[in-house]
Fold this sequence. Notes:
By secondary structure, the protein is α+β, with helices and mostly antiparallel strands. Helix content is 36%, strand content 12%. It has 15 helices and ten strands. Strands 3-2-1-10-4-5 form a six-stranded mixed beta sheet. The chain has a two-stranded parallel ribbon with strand order 6-7. Strands 8-9 form a two-stranded antiparallel ribbon. β8 and β9 form a beta hairpin. The protein is globular, with a radius of gyration of 21 Å. The chain starts with 13 loop residues before the first helix and ends in a 5-residue tail after the last helix.
Amino acid sequence: MHFLFYIVPMTRAKVLIAFILTFLCLDIAAQNDATPFAKQTTKENRAKEYRNLVDNIHSNLLLPLNDSTEENWQDAFAAMELLNYRTPFIDARVRTVMDSVEKRSTGFQRALLEMVYPLYPKDFVPQIISLAKQTNNAKLFAMCCEYLLLNNRQSECKNLVITRAKDSLINPHADNPFITILQNKLLFKSPPKPPLADLLSKAFLPNETVLFSFQRSNRNFPGLVMVRSKDGVFIKNSEGKYFTVPQLARSCSNMPGYITNGNTPQGIFKVFGFAVSQSSFIGPTTNIQMVLPYENSSDVADSVTRLLGDNYRYLLPPSWKNYYPVYEAYYAGKAGRSEIIAHGTTVNTAYYKKQLYYPLTPTQGCLCTKEIWSAVDGKRIESDQQRLVDAVKKAGGANGYCIVIEIDDQQKPVSIKDILPFLK
């Protein structure tokens, strides 16, 4: 099963994980009355978490930046992403490091861009153009290009991709997933979206339990998840209405889904079971385990993820086979993304009170549902994740597929009214 530290990869989290272990890794098992609880969600522990995260940011950014302190700075970047946190002091420190970013390690550069993309989306175009021209790391190059696209620099980005795609240092293989995605975006005409009804048809993945996560192109707006049982019928609730719960497919970085720690990629995932995470940011509610094509997983045999990848095109309806956006999950798996699951959350929703997706919380790229916990005793008060798990059990269990699909670019949350016309 995928036991995730929700925000920070283990390789760059010494200080922050020490904090998590000290303040958050508390008892997240069920109490005697069987009501799940997460002690870290009480008012006192929420306040302690915030203070320590802010202290972590400032103390780490006060350190002189060198090879031995890069990891401390990366801890600060991760905490800044989590909190959406900036101050004049932080801004000055970030500007300083951006002006010398080429001197830093690739891991540091990626952590920096992952933070800069959501928190400083317009501030560092010249520095990132320079980095894109000199880096030999394909993932970092793709991150640079995505920052330029965020700033409507399509022409410059296109020229960079054309030039650097010929560079054997950054594109040593003809099927480099990062270069392929960028070429699809920049060099080819965007194909029309195929009929959504074809994906919802009983003929698509017949005799399989399927989760459908419908999203907007702008992942700041919550999506909607529905569950189809093996007989091809969508699960309904006790009132006879289609079962739905809001589901966020946005990451803290808000980068595209083929980038590590980016948004949940569009496309097909294999669903292979339930689990309970030990991560204090995910909490004790049952999660739904998934894998990407070609994912290297400790829980699923390579033959399973390889079969998913090799058969990916054949799983799609005919009308969708040449629609390249739906292959994002395919290329994300080839690019090395992993551990994307569907889970609840114990993250403090107050961090995102001004965001369009509030009270949902962003992740490292998972599909996340709303959960509310008592500030008094940490007991679970409300859980869309538990409702989703119950619906999946009703449909036949967590053995099947999950489809993440962007239905359009309307600037509002997805609702059942958007989907109903395609269910007839």
